[in-house]
Amino acid sequence: MHVTIESPQPGITVLRLVGELEMQNVPTFRQTLQTEVRRAQRGLVVLLAEVPFIDSAGIAVLIEGLKWSHARSLPYILAQLPPAVQMVIQLARLENFFTVAHSLEDATTMILGTS
Amino acid sequence: METPPDCLTLSIPSNPRYLCAVRAFFSGFLHELGFGSVEAEGMILAIHEACANAITHGHQGNMEQQIDLTVLVTPTCLSIEIQDYGTRQDVSGIKPRALQDIRPGGLGTYFMQALMDEVTYDSSDTGTLVRMTKRRRVPCTSP
Fold first, then answer.
1. Does the distance separating the beta carbons of B111 and A88 come in below 8 Å?
2. Number of structural domains, chain A?
């Protein structure tokens, strides 16, 4: 799994994940996520379109990211959820816990609307 | 006379890097047995979580141990046994956490129970055996 970090708008950080988000690579992603939550100014978007598999460790780090963001009052949005990730989030009954956007554009609009 | 189950075995080192091999194995195999893609994805997650628990809790992160998977196929169901050789666990304490308690961790056993028809645990001084069973929606005349 690898992560690219983008900034489509000033202050908005986008983490684009490619690959499986599971116990093998969660520790590395956790560090990246923590750093970027600290660094982001207006909001953070996690793009999951290219994540074909997520496990409980992957869900756990996404929950941590939300909690770190809440502590900073930073908007935190999961976007472009593929069916496999949607299934796991629904199974964990977290669909109303996370803010979810269909596209990066929607996520950016949501963040700009809150700031 | 009842047909004996078909039996497959798979052994992996207790290293998270090999979990992708387990998932790849079951991905093809479950489709071959007639499970639909959504059901198969759920079963693969449950098997992955059981192996992850064997690494984390059974072998306590020691990546030089072994995990054995035994798959039993009958005309009506599929059973997967995951055996680690780690420390004895208090299986009475293994339970999914309440979902309203939103925090990182504790979801793996919940996923296993939600996605399989039956999950049992047996732990001794020689390790822990997790047995998960899933009924086949379209029973076959042979395994």
1. yes
2. 1
Which positions in chain A touch B52 (Cβ < 8 Å)? 22-23, 55-57
Q: Measured on CA atoms in the order B84, B87, B93, B97, is the torsion positive or negative?
A: negative
In this complex, do B108 and A55 lie within 8 Å of one another by their Cβ atoms?
A: yes
Contact B142, B3 (CB under 8 A): yes
Task: Quote the pLDDT of residue A100.
Answer: 97
Phi/psi region, residue A75 (left: phi>0; alpha: psi -120 to 50; beta: rest), is: beta
- pLDDT (tens digit per residue) in B78-127: 999 999 999 888 887 777 666 566 666 679 999 999 999 999 999 999 99
Among B59, B63, B107, the strongest candidate for a mutation testing the A interface, having the largest count of A CBs within 10 A, is B107
- Asked if B99 lies within 8 A of A93 by C-beta distance, the reply is yes
Residue A10 forms part of a structural domain:
no
- What angle, rounded to 10 degrees, do the helices at B37-53 and A56-71 form? 80
Domain presence at residue A35: no
Given pLDDT bands bounded at 50, 70 and 90, which one contains residue A24? very high
Q: A24 CB near a chain B CB, below 8 Å?
A: yes
Q: Is residue A109 part of a domain?
A: no
A16 in any annotated domain: no
pLDDT at residue B141 is higher than 70: no
Q: Which domain holds residue A97?
A: 43-81+92-101
Subunit contact A92:B45, Cβ cutoff 8 A:
no
The ipTM (two decimal places) reads 0.92
Give domain status of residue B26, yes or no.
yes
Number of domains in chain B: 1
B64 lies in which domain range? Answer: 6-135
Q: Which two tokens stand for residue A89?
A: 């989030």
